[in-house]
Amino acid sequence: ILNVEQSPQSLHVQEGDSTNFTCSFPSSNFYALHWYRWETAKSPEALFVMTLNGDEKKKGRISATLNTKEGYSYLYIKGSQPEDSATYLCASPNQKVTFGTGTKLQVIP
Amino acid sequence: GAGVSQSPSNKVTEKGKDVELRCDPISGHTALYWYRQSLGQGLEFLIYFQGNSAPDKSGLPSDRFSAERTGGSVSTLTIQRTQQEDSAVYLCASSLGWGARTEAFFGQGTRLTVV
Question: Is B96 left (phi over 0), alpha (psi -120 to 50) or beta?
Fold first, then answer.
């Protein structure tokens, strides 16, 4: 992996379903991994900053895990709600916070 | 201020004109980043500042783009001789330090439309 990659590109889930998506990043010279939520007509807002292999962070119904050795992070949303609809970005900062292209989540009521 | 402030929020300009976009970062944030999002695309890195210096200008799309930062605070992104492909939302972000182990805080963006 040379760049930050996210999958899937987009996702539609029913309200109440749980979902997860993936961020892959270069595992060499790992520094930190950021997750951001970007709602339409708003600015990206940070969800998590993760630095240690095996890190698991949680904020309400959203959680994330980190595997720095294999270069991936998962973001989980439990019991999706319409207000979770947004684009979820991950970023692998070295000096310029390089972002993936995001996963666009649509939660259908 | 309380957050990252960008101005103007919207700018419509004629092709060939120069534009200046302004970013006021959070007070005390030494790192400042410029990104843009073109229609249907993800976030594209343009340039970042550590203090007043810009160690990495590799993301600037052409020599029509330039940026400066003064006093370790306000930054200006200038686009000369604008082209239609410059139309995008330009986002500024700042963080406490470089290397970014701390989160970046984003402004609301400037929507630039070149007609």
Answer: alpha
pLDDT at B1 over 60: no
State the pLDDT at residue A95.
55
Which residues in chain B have Cβ-Cβ distances shorter than 8 Å to A46?
Answer: 103-105
Q: Residue A36 to residues A100, B75, B94: CA-CA distances in angstroms?
A: 10, 23, 14
What is the distance between the alpha carbons of residues A16 and A84, in angstroms, rounded to a whole number?
Answer: 11
| Percent of chain A predicted with pLDDT > 90 | 71
Could you report the per-residue pLDDT of A30-66, keeping only the tens digit for each?
888 999 999 988 889 999 999 899 999 999 999 999 9
Cβ–Cβ under 8 Å, residues A34 and A90: yes
Could you tell me if A55 lies within 8 Å of chain B, comparing CB atoms? Answer: no
**Whole-number Å distance between alpha carbons of B33 and B47:** 6
Residues 6+ apart with CB under 8 A from B13: B19, B82, B112, B113, B114, B115
Give SS3 for A83: helix
Is the Cβ–Cβ distance between B41 and B110 less than 8 Å? no
**pLDDT at site A70:** 93
Average pLDDT over all residues of chain B: 91
Q: Which of A42, A45, A93 sits opposite B100 (nearest CB)?
A: A93
Are A44 and B102 inside 8 Å of each other by CB? no
